């Protein structure tokens, strides 16, 4: 499979008031087109930092990051980001929030009818076609997240970058959105890099789980290939010995081999 994202020897050192903070060191990762990769690790290990490097929101101190063979030097529409706390503009309706993104990417090439169609298609895809006139404060957290995902998908990104997109949701809404995301990704064949804390979420969604060591100077400890056929069904998988095995592998990595001591 063709590599879409290449991270070569990436290092990230932050300058802080207390001096330099070495967040990531020697991170090497490739993500193929159409692959679903999750980043998992203890709090503060540098998952978001790595995602932000791929998004082009941060520049590495050393090393190089490529997307489709081009250096990632800034954010770009081919790498859409969905954050944990949906970043919808509160004064715009759901429709307008998505339209804004669509217009930014396709505004110069497409006419208004086409822009409207893309906006509506994306909202329908996430099951939000009924709420287009509502403003963010009028809909639930799960619905806001869906609109955020619609906005990202409507830009037809080459890569969908998600930073704990379901982290703030209750367990049932979370499960529902995970299932929807699986269906959407199957339909759109999107490449996804997603940060999560949730072992079950990682196993259910991923082709590969990237497990990160604890910081400072965190790096990739191990990568687990999840060879479970798709479509995946959470209820059937719960008793599948392969699922149980993958889950245990991640838990072993996080809690036996790389357990985190919380500061007293
Ligand atoms: N802009 C910054 N300036 C200084 N230090 C930073 C900055 N951003 C992140 N860090 C530090 O880098 C480390 C990694 O942070 P990061 O947010 O990437 O971790 P994370 O794994 O995503 O954490 P969490 O799971 O808690 O969200 C942390 O120690 C954090 O304090």
UniProtKB/TrEMBL annotation:
<keyword id="KW-0813">Transport</keyword>
<dbReference type="Pfam" id="PF00005">
    <property type="entry name" value="ABC_tran"/>
</dbReference>
<keyword id="KW-0472">Membrane</keyword>
<dbReference type="InterPro" id="IPR005890">
    <property type="entry name" value="NO3_transporter_ATP-bd-like"/>
</dbReference>
<dbReference type="GO" id="GO:0015112">
    <property type="term" value="F:nitrate transmembrane transporter activity"/>
</dbReference>
<dbReference type="GO" id="GO:0005886">
    <property type="term" value="C:plasma membrane"/>
</dbReference>
<comment type="similarity">
    <text>Belongs to the ABC transporter superfamily.</text>
</comment>
<keyword id="KW-0067">ATP-binding</keyword>
<dbReference type="GO" id="GO:0016887">
    <property type="term" value="F:ATP hydrolysis activity"/>
</dbReference>
<dbReference type="InterPro" id="IPR003593">
    <property type="entry name" value="AAA+_ATPase"/>
</dbReference>
<dbReference type="InterPro" id="IPR050166">
    <property type="entry name" value="ABC_transporter_ATP-bind"/>
</dbReference>
<dbReference type="GO" id="GO:0005524">
    <property type="term" value="F:ATP binding"/>
</dbReference>
<keyword id="KW-0547">Nucleotide-binding</keyword>
<dbReference type="InterPro" id="IPR017871">
    <property type="entry name" value="ABC_transporter-like_CS"/>
</dbReference>
<protein>
    <submittedName>
        <fullName>ABC transporter ATP-binding protein</fullName>
    </submittedName>
</protein>
<dbReference type="InterPro" id="IPR003439">
    <property type="entry name" value="ABC_transporter-like_ATP-bd"/>
</dbReference>
<feature type="domain" description="ABC transporter">
    <location>
        <begin position="7"/>
        <end position="239"/>
    </location>
</feature>
<dbReference type="InterPro" id="IPR027417">
    <property type="entry name" value="P-loop_NTPase"/>
</dbReference>
<keyword id="KW-1003">Cell membrane</keyword>
């Amino acid at each position: 499979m063709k590599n879409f994202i290449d991270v070569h020897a990436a290092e990230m050192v932050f300058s802080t008031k207390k001096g330099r903070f070495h967040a990531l060191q020697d991170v090497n990762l490739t993500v193929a087109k159409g692959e679903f990769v999750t980043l998992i690790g203890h709090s503060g290990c540098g998952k978001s930092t790595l995602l932000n490097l791929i998004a082009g929101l941060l520049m590495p101190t050393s090393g190089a990051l490529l997307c489709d063979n081009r250096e990632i030097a800034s954010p770009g529409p081919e790498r859409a980001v969905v954050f944990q706390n949906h970043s919808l503009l509160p004064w715009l309706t759901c429709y307008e929030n998505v339209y804004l993104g669509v217009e930014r990417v396709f505004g110069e090439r497409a006419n208004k009818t086409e822009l409207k169609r893309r906006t509506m298609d994306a909202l329908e895809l996430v099951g939000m076609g009924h709420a287009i006139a509502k403003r963010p404060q009028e809909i639930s957290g799960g619905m806001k997240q869906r609109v955020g995902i619609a906005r990202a998908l409507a830009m037809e990104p080459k890569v969908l970058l998600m930073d704990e997109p379901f982290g703030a949701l209750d367990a049932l809404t979370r499960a529902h959105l995970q299932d929807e995301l699986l269906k959407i990704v199957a339909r759109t064949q999107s490449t996804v890099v997603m940060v999560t804390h949730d072992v079950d979420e990682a196993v259910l969604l991923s082709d590969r789980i990237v497990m990160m060591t604890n910081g400072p100077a965190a790096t990739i400890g191990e990568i687990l290939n999840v060879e479970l056929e798709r479509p995946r069904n959470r209820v059937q998988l719960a008793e599948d010995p392969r699922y149980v095995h993958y889950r245990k592998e991640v838990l072993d990595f996080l809690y036996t081999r790389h357990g985190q001591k919380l500061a007293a």
